[in-house]
Specification:
Elements lengths: L8 E3 L17 E22 L7 H5 L8 E25 L5 H7 L4 E3 L30 E12 L2 E12 L2 H24 L8 H23 L1 E13 L9 E8 L3 E3 L7 E9 L16 E15 L4 E19 L4
Antiparallel strand pairs: 1-4, 2-3, 2-7, 5-6, 8-9, 8-10, 10-11, 11-12
């Protein structure tokens, strides 16, 4: 008999015991064909880099190249791919098996797999928090001001007299950079002196460790004025790809990666696409061409074994073999010989 469409039970190629839907007429069994969903659990790390105020003097005073501008970058750090089976809502059926057929199905290694109608899993998405601006107010210990000598001409008793007066002015940026670089080299010299014992003070045990740690912390603070610093945040997101049987190309945009927004959905063109490519294994020409059995039958799917590869468009990220039901063939399971 031809099977009408409804759902509460998935008929899989590997079957389990029979279940009956509460919404169907007494004596009928409803089911849907299975389909494979490929779930990707993606993790990315976003770096928010803040350039140091003395970056352009890093090469001159320290001999190092430093990034000159603030920058945000996002890189993929981990991907986990998991195939799951769920009901194909577009292929629902019901049958009315004869007496004795149900017990036969229940005792075999193949049967009907019961699932709940509706949601088959919940995804989660986490976005990066808004970033505060760079703050270098606590970096370094040298003053931002210096004194300069200036000569002023004043009239005293009708005569013009030169008077020396000290004025407070802002240090030029390069002068501040030079002083910071000098402090860095001075800290490095002190570290060598402590390690080698070339100092008036005696350091040993915990005292030496504490002194070296403090020097390292100070050097790091000063260095950040030249080479900048970075904040790192991790983002995790779950993406689902449901292959379509009649689709001409079996290459799908699984998700995208944006430097500003991190992992974004496949339809968000602001990010770089990551592609999921499926290549079904060739099927023997004689496969799937048998004659349906006489009497009542149940339709089921035999999955196609596919080579599944995730790439960034050029470089492969991961590859595996996955059984994809909707790309396979449909066959018939006899439940009556009449």
């Amino acid at each position: 008999m031809r099977l009408n469409k409804t759902l509460s039970i998935v008929l899989a190629a590997a079957m389990l015991p029979v279940a009956v839907s509460a919404q169907d007429a007494m004596g009928t069994v409803s089911y849907a064909l299975p389909q494979t969903t490929i779930t990707l659990e993606v993790e990315a790390v976003r770096e928010s880099f803040y350039a140091g105020p003395y970056a352009k003097f890093a090469q001159k005073y320290l001999g190092v190249n430093a990034r000159q501008e603030d920058q945000q970058t996002c890189t993929l750090s981990a991907v986990k791919m998991t195939p799951t089976i769920e009901a194909d809502q577009n292929n629902r059926y019901y049958i009315t098996p004869e007496k004795g057929a149900m017990s036969f199905l229940a005792l075999t290694a193949q049967g009907l797999v019961a699932v709940n109608d509706g949601s088959f899993g919940n995804g989660s998405e986490w976005r990066f928090a808004s970033q505060a601006g760079a703050d270098f107010s606590d970096k370094g210990v040298s003053s931002n001001l210096t004194s300069e000598a200036a000569t002023l001409i004043r009239g005293v008793d009708g005569a013009r007299v030169a008077v020396q007066q000290s004025m407070v002015v802002q240090k030029p940026l390069e002068q501040r950079a030079k002083e910071a670089a000098e402090m860095i080299f001075d800290l490095r010299k002190k570290r060598v002196q402590i390690v080698t014992g070339d100092t008036d003070a005696t350091y040993s045990g915990e005292a030496m460790g504490a002194a070296l740690a403090e020097i390292a912390a100070l050097e790091k603070e000063y260095m950040s004025m030249f080479i900048g610093y970075s904040d790192f945040q991790t983002q995790k997101m779950k993406c689902d790809v449901v292959p379509e049987k009649d689709r001409k190309s079996q290459t799908y945009v699984a998700f995208r990666l944006s430097d500003t927004d991190g992992i974004v959905s496949a339809d968000n063109v602001s990010g770089k696409p990551y592609l999921l490519e499926l290549v079904p294994q060739p099927v023997s020409p004689s496969a799937g061409k048998g004659t349906p059995a006489k009497g009542a039958v149940a339709v089921y799917r035999i999955p196609a074994v596919c080579s599944v590869k995730l790439t960034d468009g050029v470089n492969p990220i991961l590859q595996d073999r996955v059984a994809v039901y909707q790309l396979g063939v449909e066959s018939y399971f006899p439940i009556s010989t009449k």
